[in-house]
Each structure stands twice: as C-alpha cells, then as structure tokens.
Amino acid sequence: MNLIRGQYLDDFLNSKDYDIRKTNNARWIDQKCTPDVVTIIADCILEYTSDDKNKDIFSSMDIWHNNYTVVNVEDIFKKPSPKSKAAKNEYDKFFQQPMEMLSYAGILTKIKKGNRNFYSIADKGLLQEIAFGERYALFFLVKYIEKVLRDSGIYSLFEEFFDKQDKNSYEKVKFGFRDFTIEYTPINNETEVFRIFTKVINPLAYDKSSYGTERGRLSKDIITYDMLMYNRDNFRDIYQSKPKGITRKEHETPSPSRARFIQYQMDKAIKNVKRVNQYYNFGLSEVEGDDNPATETHHIFPKTEFPEISYFEENLINLTPNQHRNQAHPLGNFSVVDKEFQKICLIAKLGTIKFSIENNLGVYDFNNFLVVTDTGYRTDIFSQIELYNYEEVIRQINLLK
C-alpha cells in the first residue's frame, strides 16, 4: 500500500517512454478519465478478475456486464443499466477510455484480436492502489500526465502557464496542446481536443493549487477537488448546507443514486481496511488482547446512527469475532455499543493511523479521524487539536463520558 505514493510509481513511470510523437496515440487520456471514474473502473476490473483464472483476459464489455459493475455504476453515475442496448455507446466510452489510458500507462496490457481490444493486468499492485480511492487515482493521474507531457516535449507550455497564470499563457498552452494533438494523433476536431485538454490541465492545476480551465476559459478560481470529478454533485454534500424549508430528516435522506454511492464507498472502505490490515498487521486485530484472526470489521460509531462517517476508513477497525460480537456489542446485540470498548477502539485506530502516517502509506488521514471523533461524540473538541498531536487526542477521548 505504498506504491503510488512511494518511489515505486516514479520508477515505474520512468521505465516507460510515453512520447506521443512516437506512439501517435490520442487515447493516452480522455474525457472519462476522471479520478472517480478511474478508481471505480479499476475496482470493477479487480472484482471481475478475482478468484477466476479464466478471467485473466477481458474486454471492456466483460467488465461493464459483470454484476458487480451493474449494481454499482448504474446508480452511482446516474446512468441507464449497462445491460440496456440504448446505453451501449455511452458505456463503451465510460469503460473503454479509462482502460485505454491504463493500458497506455502500462498498468494494463492491451491485446488486439481482430478489431476488438482485450486487456490483462500488467501491474496488479498499482491497479489495487488506484482502486483504493479517488485520491489515489488522482495522485497517479497527476504523475502520469506530467510524465507523458514531458516525454512528448510539451510540458514547458504547461510550466509557463503555471508560472504566469494569465490569459496569454493560458491561450498559449491551450492552443499549443490543440496543435500538438492534431499534428501527432488521428484527432482533427478541436472541440474534442479541448475536452481532453480539461482532463490534462486541471489535475495538474489542482496539484499546484493553481488556476486551470473552466468552460473553455481561464478559470476564475483555483481548481478545486470537486471540479475534477465526473460526478460533480458529490454525495458528501447531502450532509452539508441544509436548504431552508425542508426538515433535517428529509435533507439527510439521500437520493437512490447517492445512497448507492454511500453504500459502495462504505463497502469499499471495509474492503480497503481489511486489505491494509492483512498486509501490515498480518490480519490480526487492531485491538490487542486476542491473537485470533481479525475477520470482522467494526464501525466504531454505528453506521445507522452516523451515516455521514460510515464510509470513513478512520471509523472502521478490524476485530476478532469475539471482540466484535461480545466486547464491541455486548451479548451479540448489534444495536448496543459498549462505550468503554468504543474508546479502546478509537485509541487503537489512532495507533494504526499514526503508523500509516509515519510510514507514508497514504492510507489514513489524521484530520478525518478528528472528524470521526467530533461527529461520533457530537462535539467540536477534536477539530481544535493541533495536527498530529496524538497524545492530546488520546487525552480528550479518555476525558469523554
């Protein structure tokens, strides 16, 4: 779990020659290659190929007809069922574009059979980390985009823009990218080039806290995280800014697509913390005292009571069945939470988070843990604690009743 944020990704990218002037490949990135789409496509590929050696080679159609994909993508991205004939063209692009990008990067291997494209996984570790979450996918995209631009000899245009941040440098990089793409790739439609340009410049702009492009012009504001997403109507917003005239209950009842997205994120978070625990903690409990395998994942603050933090990895902890069913939930009553064991879980989870941060694993976020504790205890004490002051967090947890 330290490939994308460590030296491994740099070495991987540096081993490749992505020069578009040599490959003439226009599909090194495309309109659907946003962090939220790329991460879910990577996740769907891993689910499709898991536990079945006969699925080592697959097409985009195989992925988007897989039941796991149908259940999640249809609701999350507000699209018609992948099984619908009317949706074929849209789904071709939705799955094909990220898969083409991943194959150009070398994470997938593309195999031509007649006029059809098939793929296999070339680097499972990187694919797993891209599937881990949107921020992992974004981190990869930023590094990958910059490497392609450097190899292709046009990164200087982007450097000048990020240095000057004015209209002239914006037009220079925009039209320079257009001319380069039309000269060296089969694309000859400038509208299509400009749509791709957005997916190239804005991740870099976000990474540099800079202006980028919006609606074909120099953006008026610094590029923000939500501007990079395919689903810009972010599901997290359902718990913020309650409109006037509706009740809190009505506001906190998500639409079916948002509810599905929350469920998907929660399911993936559970899968993520299990995988990380298996890798770094040998699959043992995060709470000391029971040497049996930690086969169950526990919401420290219950998902039914606190849905807004149900998908936070920082609210999930790996426990043994005995710890989960007897200590966390006395007598196996899952509607009851033992408050003292809850504190033990929080402090143990903080230890896991500290290990992750100090070893630069990029798995957990200290501030997210503060959000979890403030939300779970309905307070604002933890948000006022200085960054990485673990001792003060523990002190405040022990003070609470």
Protein model, in words:
With 401 residues, the chain is mostly helical. The chain has two domains: 7-219, no CATH class; 249-399, no CATH class. It is built from 17 helices and six strands. The protein has helices at 7-14, 20-23, 35-49, 60-65, 67-76, 88-105, 124-132, 134-151, 155-164, 167-184, 190-207, 248-251, 256-281, 321-328, 339-358, 366-377, 390-399; strands spanning 108-113, 116-121, 211-214, 217-222, 296-299, 316-319. The strands form three sheets. The chain has a two-stranded antiparallel ribbon with strand order 1-2. Strand 1 and strand 2 form a beta hairpin. Helix 8 packs across helix 11 (190-207). The longest helix is centred in the C-terminal third of the chain and has 26 residues, at 256-281. The relative contact order is 0.09. Mean pLDDT is 89; it is low at 233-252.
Unreliable parts: 233-252
Estimate the helix proportion, in percent. Answer: 40-55%
Class from helix and strand fractions: mainly alpha
- Strands of the widest sheet, in order across it, are 1-2
Percentage beta strand: 5-15%
User: In oligomeric terms, what are we looking at?
Assistant: single chain
Mean pLDDT: 89
Q: What is the overall shape? A: globular
Q: What is the number of E strands?
A: 6
Element order, helices and strands?
A: HHHHHHEEHHHHHEEHHEEHHHH
> Number of folding domains?
2
Biggest sheet layout: 2 strands, antiparallel
How many helical stretches?
17
> What is the end-to-end distance?
36 Å
Q: Radius of gyration from the CA trace?
A: 23 Å
